[in-house]
Amino acid sequence: MRILFITATRLGDAVISTGLLERLRHTYPDARFTIACGPVAAGLFQRMPGLDQIIVMTKRRYDLHWFHLWRQCVFTRWDLIVDLRGSGTSFFLRSRRRRIMRGGRRAGSRLAHVGQLFDLVPPPMPTVWMSTEDVAKARTVLGRQPVIAFGPTANWSGKVWPADHFIALWDALSKARPDIRLAVFYGPGETERRMAAPLLAIPGVVNAGGCFTLAETAAMLSLCTLFVGNDSGLMHLAAAAGTLTLGLFGPSKASEYAPGGRHAEWIAAPGPEGEAPIAGLRTEAVADRILGMLSVIAAEPKP
């Protein structure tokens, strides 16, 4: 069985789609998957069982990236095409079945929107795929001491909690929990590194960004005690990895983009949803929420 799965360009949206992909993988255990996605998200799928190939869709003028995708897929007879981009490309490919997600404004979360494509209520939670080598490398980077992860970057400046707020947060957390160590996560490129730079100057910090694959990053996040960060792809990746996650929201809508995971929560700046400046989110409120989350986890019985 051959399945073509067309998913997002951005990392966060691609992570959201992984739960549906994993559900399909278990529903059709003999299927071979072709994943079409943007270059930033491609590494997310490299460890997925049942993967045939990843088609990286780099945006081109006049939407020629869709023609490029069609050209690579047109000679295959597909059993199922899932198009989360709503492109309509699948209508020009041979397939027994098609599921195309329509755009437009919808009530509820992006995660629920993806699940509705197959009438899945509740929607399947995002997941990550990694190897034992990824986990071993992650352990080498992080060591054995309990680690709290910060994600101080985002793809839009309006979603970025100020660096001095993160620094004040670490000061409060390190006093309350002197046993923990800080790891700072950020994406590749100079822009991301500049946003993370003030936190990388904190003594003893673990630099966990910039040069790792997404599978390695997911493995590192899975070993962290907690992740706190802006509404970003890293936030969604941390939640998908099963890490205790607190997403920070300002002008982006938590009702749509909240992290999806068994241990994922969010906190928003005071004010109307989607309009409140994220700088209005008080450090004390975030610290209190984190310490409360940690105390709940500590009180849970060990398996």
Automatic annotation (TrEMBL):
Keywords: Glycosyltransferase, Transferase
Top-level taxon in the UniProt lineage: Bacteria
InterPro entries: Glyco_trans_9, LPS_LOS_Heptosyltrfase
Keyword Mitochondrion: no
Protein name stated in the entry: Glycosyltransferase family 9 protein
